[in-house]
């Protein structure tokens, strides 16, 4: 596999890695497309980072407001609020959900089921050793 370096001046240098694999020389137009694609990808990655940060701030504000609204509605036994401006309603809802099946929770449930720490550990070890391994490909940007 070959490593490519994209400079800020939109030129590309090709260095082969230590595996001595045959290098397929890309066509000139492929190199230009790759250069432009990498520059655009990096720009979009920066924009997404900024948008994620803004979304995080808004989620925090929404969560704080939701806690205030829920507390008031619960304390005053209000089931629904009619909104005059939008014509919508805000409902107070309760729902029950099952907890996740993370490793720690799964281990505790198995200990309860088998009445044996050893048996639960054995089953957890089997599950971990026989889980399907999935390979995902992607890009990562590292500041120099």
What does this structure look like?
By secondary structure, the chain is mainly alpha-helical. It has 2 domains: 2-95, no CATH class; 96-144, no CATH class. The chain is 51% helix and 11% strand. It has 3 helices and 4 strands; from the N terminus they run ββαββαα. The protein has helices at residues 28-75, 103-114, 117-130; strands at 2-6, 12-16, 80-82, 89-91. The strands form 2 sheets. The chain has a two-stranded antiparallel ribbon with strand order 1-2. Strand 1 (2-6) and strand 2 (12-16) form a beta hairpin. Mean pLDDT is 84; it is low at 8-18.
Q: What is the helix content?
A: 40-55%
**What gyration radius follows from the Cα positions, in whole Å?**
27 Å
Class by alpha and beta content: mainly alpha
How many distinct folded domains?
2
Number of helices: 3
What is the count of β-strands?
A: 4
Distance separating the two termini: 21 Å
The description of the largest β-sheet is: 2 strands, antiparallel
Uncertain segments: 8-18
Shape estimate: flat
Mean pLDDT across the residues is 84
Strand fraction equals: 5-15%
Strand order of the largest sheet: 1-2
Topology:
Elements: E1 2-6, E2 12-16, H1 28-75, E3 80-82, E4 89-91, H2 103-114, H3 117-130
Antiparallel strand pairs: 1-2, 3-4
């Amino acid at each position: 596999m070959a490593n490519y370096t994209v400079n800020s001046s939109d030129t590309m240098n090709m260095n082969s890695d230590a595996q001595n694999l045959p290098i397929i020389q890309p066509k000139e137009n492929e190199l230009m497309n790759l250069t432009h694609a990498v520059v655009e990808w990096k720009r979009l990655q920066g924009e997404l980072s900024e948008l994620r940060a803004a979304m995080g701030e808004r989620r925090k504000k929404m969560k704080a407001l939701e806690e205030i609204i829920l507390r008031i509605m619960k304390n005053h036994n209000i089931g629904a609020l009619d909104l005059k401006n939008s014509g919508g309603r805000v409902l107070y809802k309760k729902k029950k959900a099952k907890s996740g099946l993370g490793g720690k929770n799964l281990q505790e449930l198995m200990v309860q089921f088998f009445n044996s720490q050893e048996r639960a550990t054995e089953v957890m070890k089997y599950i971990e050793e026989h889980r399907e391994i999935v390979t995902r490909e992607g890009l990562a940007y590292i500041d120099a």
